[in-house]
Specification:
The chain is an alpha+beta fold and 122 residues long. It has a single domain, classed as HIT-like (HIT family, subunit A, 2-Layer Sandwich), CATH 3.30.428. It is built from three helices and five strands. It is globular and about 35 Å long. The protein starts with 9 loop residues before the first helix and ends in an 11-residue tail after the last strand. The model has no long low-confidence stretch (mean pLDDT 96). It binds adenosine monophosphate (AMP). The site of adenosine monophosphate has 13 residues, from loops.
Length: 122
């Protein structure tokens, strides 16, 4: 599917330096920062610097270098925050049914406590 990227989304503004962020890690193609409304003791968002709406868009259209950098950035955040041993959860919401608030790909990395089951029953 072809996605249309909104240059005015809040993460695009963060990437342009127009609004601040609490950076955890910056790499050539990726940025990780603390979520402004944390849902767990650890709640980091990892975004690619490229203009990708969601994971499907990124996995279909990003370069190998971007995909490698992004994947490794997620691993580096887990190592930096020390959650690999006790566990963590990665979530990437997409579109209407995924209830995606910001239309720029982001992975939530959550941890630091028992996170319970993944979904509430519908
Ligand atoms: P989603 O519903 O998956 O699109 O999640 C968007 C996330 O972005 C939410 O967890 C928000 O708390 C977070 N968020 C929104 N604005 C900011 C910001 N300026 N800095 C950090 N996190 C933000």
């Amino acid at each position: 599917m072809a996605y249309t990227y909104d240059n005015e989304n809040i993460f695009a503004k963060i990437l342009r330096g127009e609004i601040p962020n609490d950076t955890v890690l910056e790499t050539e193609h990726s940025l990780a920062f603390n979520d402004i409304r944390p849902q767990a003791p650890l709640h980091v968002l990892v975004i690619p610097k490229g203009k990708y709406v969601n994971y499907d868009d990124f996995a279909s259209n990003a370069s190998d270098a971007e995909i490698l950098d992004y994947t490794r950035a997620i691993s580096k955040v887990c190592a930096m925050k020390g959650v690999a041993a006790d566990g963590f959860r990665m979530i990437s919401n997409a579109g209407r049914d995924g209830v995606q608030e910001v239309p720029h790909l982001h992975v939530h990395i959550l941890g630091g406590r028992d996170l319970g089951r993944m979904l509430n029953p519908a």
